[in-house]
């Protein structure tokens, strides 16, 4: 019998890469989302479930009987969380608790064990605690989003310790791809630069260009998620690359790839600055390397080029459509 996995938030970048990976590994993949449209994998069974109702989640678990649950669903955009702190807490914080509780009830009622993965975030860690953060770094969230993720992270640890649940936090540092939503900075940059190249857009308006992040590739990160749930014992893992680059460097690489000088096109608007923005975020992946045998494969430059190439093709389609229309 094929193993059965449930991915929440399956239409996001991580959900899509993870679905692809699990299908390759021979899983039956179920996913849920509140906006189930046009999901590219026909083999994935899609469900529309309200993350705000524990009974719905419990009923879905009984119906599909997963052995692994990957909890990705969240409001994961930091600036939006300042405008919608309650909704963010509800979806990102309480949503994870409802999922854990539904799994616990299902395990008791059906005498089964489920392995649970939580997409935790580097944003929960104290970015003032040092240049490189690990699993022992203090938790000090500094945005409504980070507070909600910290709550979910602690509940995962609590369910593991109090109920013996097989539950792992992947403390994910920034990870990007051509499937990244355009509200995040890397995709905003590659979409805009490629549209500028083809004359479809004049300017790119950004905020803080000096923030340094360890930009990883989402396709690499989902490997680590799967590896965590194959361990003998559950644990928490930092997943990151080991090199940081500023937003400015990302802009520069992308525009150079298109033979453009970014300084002619990029403008700064204070609207995109945040009340708090970690100056540097980088993870120590010693635990992931030693216990999971995991290593990031795609470099910063390869990632920027891959995203630029993808978005150049999109811009070319847009350009052709404009001319034929
Ligand atoms: N979104 C955005 N960010 C900008 C902009 N200009 C500069 N930035 C800077 O670019 C950096 C990255 O911003 P995002 O791409 O929005 O990501 P994030 O806030 O770091 O959060 C992402 O990574 C976390 C893990 O480290 C995730 O937890 C979170 O959900 C998200 O994926 C931040 O320092 C932000 O201030 C802009 O126009 N838009």
Automatic annotation (TrEMBL):
BP-aspect Gene Ontology terms: 'de novo' GDP-L-fucose biosynthetic process
* Highest taxon of the lineage: Bacteria
Q: Which residues form the NAD(P)-binding domain?
A: 6-307
**Which Pfam family is an annotated match for this chain, by its short name?**
GDP_Man_Dehyd
Note the InterPro entries from the entry: GDP_Man_deHydtase, NAD(P)-bd_dom, NAD(P)-bd_dom_sf
Required co-factors: NADP(+)
User: What does this protein do, in the record's words?
Assistant: Catalyzes the conversion of GDP-D-mannose to GDP-4-dehydro-6-deoxy-D-mannose.
Spell out the family assignment given in the record's similarity comment.
Belongs to the NAD(P)-dependent epimerase/dehydratase family. GDP-mannose 4,6-dehydratase subfamily.
**Protein's recorded name:** GDP-mannose 4,6-dehydratase
Q: What is the protein's species of origin? A: Polystyrenella longa
């Amino acid at each position: 019998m094929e193993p059965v996995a449930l991915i929440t938030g399956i239409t996001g970048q991580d959900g899509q890469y993870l679905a692809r990976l699990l299908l390759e590994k021979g899983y039956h993949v179920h996913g849920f989302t509140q906006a189930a449209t046009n999901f590219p994998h026909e083999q994935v069974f899609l469900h529309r479930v309200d993350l705000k109702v524990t009974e719905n989640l419990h009923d879905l678990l009984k119906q599909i009987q997963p052995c692994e649950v990957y909890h990705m669903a969240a409001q994961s955009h930091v600036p939006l969380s300042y405008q919608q702190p309650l909704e963010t807490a509800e979806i990102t914080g309480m949503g994870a608790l409802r999922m854990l509780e539904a799994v616990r009830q299902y395990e008791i009622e059906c005498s089964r064990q489920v392995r649970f993965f939580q997409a935790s975030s580097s944003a929960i860690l104290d970015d003032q605690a040092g240049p490189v953060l690990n699993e022992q770094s203090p938790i000090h969230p500094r945005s409504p989003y980070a507070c909600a993720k910290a709550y979910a992270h602690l509940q995962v640890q609590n369910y593991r310790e109090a109920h013996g649940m097989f539950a792992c936090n992947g403390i994910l540092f920034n990870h990007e791809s051509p499937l990244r939503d355009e509200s995040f900075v890397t995709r905003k940059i590659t979409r805009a630069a490629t549209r500028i190249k083809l004359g479809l857009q004049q300017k790119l308006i950004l905020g803080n260009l000096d923030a340094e992040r360890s930009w990883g590739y989402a396709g690499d990160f989902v490997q680590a998620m799967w590896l965590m749930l194959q361990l003998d014992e559950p644990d928490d893992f930092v997943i990151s690359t080991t090199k940081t680059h500023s937003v400015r460097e990302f802009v520069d690489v992308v525009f150079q790839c298109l033979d453009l000088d970014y300084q002619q096109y990029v403008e700064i608007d204070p609207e995109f600055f945040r009340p708090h923005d970690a100056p540097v975020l980088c993870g120590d992946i010693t635990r992931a390397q030693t216990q999971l045998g995991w290593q990031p494969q795609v470099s910063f430059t390869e990632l920027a080029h891959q995203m630029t190439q993808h978005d150049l093709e999109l811009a070319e389609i847009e350009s052709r459509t404009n001319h034929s229309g």
